């Protein structure tokens, strides 16, 4: 990795340290309406003693100093999770109002059905928060394997929220302990988290197995 960084940086500019410069992220820049991939990093300028940012246009191969021409933007995965998470919060508030206004705040309801309604209500919040956290922090991986692991995990988490909302209205009024749709939503949520966690492990292993 150190030899690769020396080849990328201009003459007289040496990498500050292997751990500092070897971590590269996939960036997406929007230049003249087209999506352009860029490599981004940092180097230590031995002449003026300063650390500067470094970007390189993957399509043209031209080096760009600074971040003005290579701006990281939210990708489809980020936006999807943010929108789904916000929709889930809205569903959480609406189901709360439904229990308050149409079911008289569950007053007089037997303990069993009451617990089912409350648990279904909390499941929706749980799934919405998972999507919001991913929408804020997830960055699409540059590696093909880890990226597809992220896509599968995201699909499971988004679908899980839909199943929780469906289960609240379709299964909870039946007052049955067995709720197969809600159970499936829990499994999907667990699977989504595991897929994203595996993607992170793959990225970590890929970075640390790269040759110096």
Task: Characterise this structure.
- The longest helix has 29 residues, at 180-208.
- Residues 7-37, 57-62 and 64-74 have low confidence and may be disordered.
- Helix 4 (111-137) packs antiparallel against helix 5 and helix 5 (144-170) runs antiparallel to helix 6.
- With 212 residues, this protein is α+β, with helices and mostly antiparallel strands.
- The chain has helices at 2-8, 18-21, 76-102, 111-137, 144-170, 180-208; strands at residues 13-14, 26-31, 34-45, 50-57, 63-65.
- It is built from six helices and five strands, in the order H-E-H-E-E-E-E-H-H-H-H.
- It has two domains: 2-65, no CATH class; 76-208, no CATH class.
- Strands 1, 2, 3, 4 and 5 form a five-stranded antiparallel β-sheet that branches.
Q: How many β-strand runs?
A: 5
Could you give a short account of the major beta sheet? 5 strands, antiparallel
When the domains are counted, the total is: 2
Poorly predicted tracts of residues: 7-37, 57-62, 64-74
Structural class: alpha+beta
Radius of gyration: 24 Å
What is the overall silhouette? elongated
Q: Kindly report how far apart the N and C termini lie.
A: 4 Å
Helix content class: 55-70%
* Strand portion: 5-15%
Sequence of secondary-structure elements: HEHEEEEHHHH
What integer is the average pLDDT?
Answer: 75
How many helix segments?
6
Summarize the helices and strands and which ones pair or pack.
Blueprint: H1 2-8, E1 13-14, H2 18-21, E2 26-31, E3 34-45, E4 50-57, E5 63-65, H3 76-102, H4 111-137, H5 144-170, H6 180-208
Antiparallel strand pairs: 1-3, 2-3, 3-4, 4-5
Helix pairs in contact: 3-4, 3-5, 4-5, 5-6
């Amino acid at each position: 990795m150190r030899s690769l960084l020396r080849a990328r940086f201009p003459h007289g500019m040496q990498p500050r340290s292997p751990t500092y410069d070897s971590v590269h992220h996939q960036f997406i820049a929007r230049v003249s309406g087209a999506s352009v991939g860029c490599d981004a990093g940092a180097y230590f300028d031995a002449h003026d003693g300063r650390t500067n940012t470094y970007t390189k246009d993957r399509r043209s191969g031209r080096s760009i100093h600074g971040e003005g021409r290579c701006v990281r933007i939210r990708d489809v995965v980020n936006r999807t999770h943010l929108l789904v998470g916000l929709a889930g919060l809205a569903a959480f508030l609406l189901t709360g109002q439904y229990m308050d206004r149409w079911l008289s705040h569950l007053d007089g309801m037997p303990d069993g059905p009451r617990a089912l309604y409350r648990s279904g209500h909390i499941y929706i919040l749980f799934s919405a928060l998972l999507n919001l956290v991913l929408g804020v922090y997830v960055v699409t991986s540059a590696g093909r394997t880890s990226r597809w692991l992220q896509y599968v995990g995201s699909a499971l988490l988004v679908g899980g929220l839909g199943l929780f909302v469906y289960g609240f209205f379709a299964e909870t009024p039946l007052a049955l302990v067995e709720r197969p749709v809600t159970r499936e939503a829990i499994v999907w949520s667990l699977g989504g988290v595991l897929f994203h966690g595996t993607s992170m492990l793959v990225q970590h292993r890929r970075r640390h197995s790269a040759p110096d």
